[in-house]
Specification:
alpha/beta; Rossmann fold; 5-stranded mixed β-barrel; about 35% helix; globular
């Protein structure tokens, strides 16, 4: 539904606030641990109780808004779309991702420079030939932050194209191998919709993901992680939250 008249009619229900109250920096994520980590880092936290729950807060004097988007491109895309009627100009999306290359480890970070549009939500907004690409300025800022943050760390950051799907249940061995051979580095369920819709509505967007599994090496969502992988996941999550905080403060 395209808002007509007062945009706050929509944002009160969706976001739990007036349209004008949304910050120019918005973080979208479905991951509770990341939400809690940023809430703890924030000051002057104001909780929001819309359909997409979240909060306003400050980090280093810089105000931002966070919304818990739904898992999957339809929910994430709709959460993003209505930000066009607010002061939001920067969106940072973060979630979990499966690696598609055997040299990427659980706990590493992936920054998608672009995403193959294997999901269906973005096709309601524009034809399939439209590219899903991150904003270059946000990518550069994230890269600078991570270059500094990961010095001496075992956790690594990887940049490249990923695949966005609507169904992890349909990921056969043949499907995964086809995209691994084509040099995609990860697979998840939201980024291509975020990148496509953000560009269409004039919002700068970039994503940063925590590697939760690697089906290429047999570490799928259905396998129990080793103690070492759980330790790496915890460390990677902490570094991800720190990178987000530094990015917010510096924008």
């Amino acid at each position: 539904m395209i808002p007509r008249g007062d945009a706050s009619i929509y944002t009160r229900s969706l976001y739990g606030c007036e349209a004008s109250e949304v910050s120019d920096i918005v973080v979208l994520t479905p991951i509770d641990d990341i939400i809690q980590g940023l809430r703890e880092r924030g000051e002057e936290v104001m909780e929001l109780k819309g359909f997409f729950r979240g909060f306003h807060a400050h980090i280093g004097g810089r105000r931002f808004t966070l919304f818990k988007s739904l898992i999957g491109s339809p929910g994430a895309g709709d959460c993003l779309y209505y930000l066009r009627f607010t002061p939001c100009r920067h969106v940072i999306y973060t979630g979990l991702i499966g690696a598609l290359q055997d040299w990427i480890e659980v706990g590493d970070l992936i920054i998608p420079t672009s995403a193959y549009r294997g999901e269906g939500a973005s096709r309601y907004f524009v034809d399939e030939a439209y590219p899903a690409a991150a904003d270059f300025q946000l990518l550069r800022r994230l890269s600078e932050i991570l270059d500094e943050l990961l010095k001496g760390e075992e956790i690594r950051v990887h940049y490249g194209a990923i695949y966005t799907t609507d169904s992890f249940a349909s990921e056969t061995d043949e499907f995964l191998e086809r995209w691994r051979r084509r040099r995609l580095i990860g697979i998840e369920m939201e980024t291509s919709a975020i990148y496509t819709i953000a560009r269409l509505i004039g919002i700068k967007a970039a994503a940063i993901h925590l590697v939760s599994d690697n089906p290429i090496t047999g570490k799928t969502l259905f396998h129990k992680l080793s103690e070492e992988d759980r330790r790496r996941m915890e460390r990677g999550r902490g570094l991800l939250i720190e990178a987000l905080a530094r990015l917010i403060e510096g924008l």
